[in-house]
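Before a colleague's protein record goes any further, I have to sign it off. What it holds is a sequence and that sequence's fold in token form. Would you go through it and say whether the fold makes sense for this chain? The record follows directly below this note.
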Amino acid sequence: MKFAFCSLALGVLWYMATPALADMGKDAAPLKAASGSKAESHIAAGIEHYGKGHWDVAKKHFTEAEQADPQSAEAHYDLALALDKAGDHKSATEHFQRAQTLGKDNMEIQQSEILRKHLKM
């Protein structure tokens, strides 16, 4: 009984002491690909599923987008959003970093609150 209570108490303390990572991007929206990008159709499909809350399907499409155009900042950003929703914060942070590097001229990426929180800016 003591162990269960201690575990519960530690869990509550951890939850209260850290920002709710899953809530970081609750208002963040995926970005469309640049016109003509090889990632464009994959991102469009991913955005459709992301909007419906189909995180795993969106992640699959955004992964395909990133593979089709590894230099697409939007593909990395969108994949990071889906990874964040899936709870894979480590991978999300890696893709946010890549999006920030590739998307130097994209103000939506550079000023993204969820990206800044993941990169601790």
Q: What stands out?
A: The CA atoms of residues 80 and 92 lie 4 Å apart. The chain has seven helices and no strands. The chain has one domain: 25-118.
